[in-house]
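User: Hi! I have a protein structure encoded as tokens and I'd like to know what sequence might fold into it. I'm fairly new to this, so please keep things simple.
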């Protein structure tokens, strides 16, 4: 099965489906990532704060897969925005990953109360220019944060990685991102398992119609809306299931019915970006 790629605003391309490693315990990461690579995943999303970059690196090294066939993302943690800390942080991440560059490096959260995300973003542009990351992006940036970094640096991030799932669509941020050519990476694409997808009729109905799981239907909805996703599981059977979403399509009516599940801010299941500093 071939995973489609999307073109970023810097000319690089990114596989639309990957494997997310948030809360994958360090001691389980090499096994889980190795299984994902065996299944066919070539895009891995990690972060310094996840504490599992070493396991990701070990799985990559053991796989023998050529570097240019892999897409690796990691993220700058919130306490390292200031001064030259981002330069040190990327070196540490690369050492743990066993790589000389990542494909995508993200400012993990804007931490707006500290008012240092413009500086952090400028540092990531510099890291990209030095070749330590192919692309630079942000995560958890709301519309005003996106507008501000673009206005103050003239550089649009390649992606904004934000919480987005059937009950929470982030209309304002996704509209700004679309206008600015910033692709959306949907984190928590399955709602982090915090609500029952099967209880949502448009998802359950589409799952029955296509003989698929509600998770497959939800991931397919993201794919057809042009988002990048990297669902997390440590179970091989679920990793396989989440990968098998390119041999069926949702109809326009099914897509519209899932679109109508948006509850706005009430649908958020995790931290508000303005509250994490
Ligand atoms: P998710 O929506 O991918 O949900 C993961 C949970 O869904 C799993 O724990 C599992 O219980 C369940 N699940 C997965 N596949 C399933 C299946 N086929 N059947 C039944 N249950 C299934 O949530 P997530 O892990 O938070 O998000 C995905 C990735 O996004 C993360 O691993 C991480 O890489 C990234 N992320 C980024 C941020 C950020 O701040 N940038 C925050 C959270 C997550």
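Assistant: Happy to help. Inverse folding works backwards from shape to sequence: for each of the 277 positions I chose a residue that suits the local structure. Here it is:
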């Amino acid at each position: 099965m071939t995973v489609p790629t999307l073109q970023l605003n810097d000319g690089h391309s990114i596989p639309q489906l990957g494997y997310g490693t948030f809360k994958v315990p360090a001691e389980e990461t090499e096994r889980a990532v190795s299984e994902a690579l065996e299944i066919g995943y070539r895009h891995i999303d990690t972060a310094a704060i996840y504490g599992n970059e070493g396991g990701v690196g070990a799985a990559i090294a053991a796989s023998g897969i050529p570097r240019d066939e892999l897409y690796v993302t990691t993220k700058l943690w919130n306490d390292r925005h200031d001064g030259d800390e981002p330069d040190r942080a990327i070196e540490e991440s690369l050492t743990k990953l066993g790589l000389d560059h990542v494909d995508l490096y993200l400012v993990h959260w804007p931490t707006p109360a500290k008012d240092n995300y413009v500086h952090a973003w400028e540092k990531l542009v510099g890291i990209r220019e030095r070749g330590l990351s192919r692309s630079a992006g942000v995560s958890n940036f709301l519309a005003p944060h996106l507008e501000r970094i673009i206005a103050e640096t003239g550089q649009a991030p390649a992606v904004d990685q934000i919480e987005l799932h059937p009950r929470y669509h982030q209309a304002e941020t996704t509209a700004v991102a679309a206008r600015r050519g910033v692709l959306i990476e949907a984190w928590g694409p399955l709602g982090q398992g915090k609500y029952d997808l099967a209880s949502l009729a448009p998802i359950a109905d589409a799952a029955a119609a296509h003989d698929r799981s509600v998770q497959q239907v939800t991931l397919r909805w993201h794919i057809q809306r042009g988002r990048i996703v990297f669902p997390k599981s440590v179970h091989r059977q679920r990793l396989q299931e989440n990968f098998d979403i390119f041999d069926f399509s949702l109809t326009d009516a099914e897509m519209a019915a899932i679109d109508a599940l948006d509850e706005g801010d009430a649908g958020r299941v995790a931290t508000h970006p303005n509250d994490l500093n």
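A useful reference point when you look it over: The pocket of nicotinamide-adenine-dinucleotide is lined by residues 20-22, 45, 108, 139-140, 161, 187-193, 213, 215, 230-233, 238, 241-242 (CB under 6 Å). Feel free to ask if any position seems puzzling.
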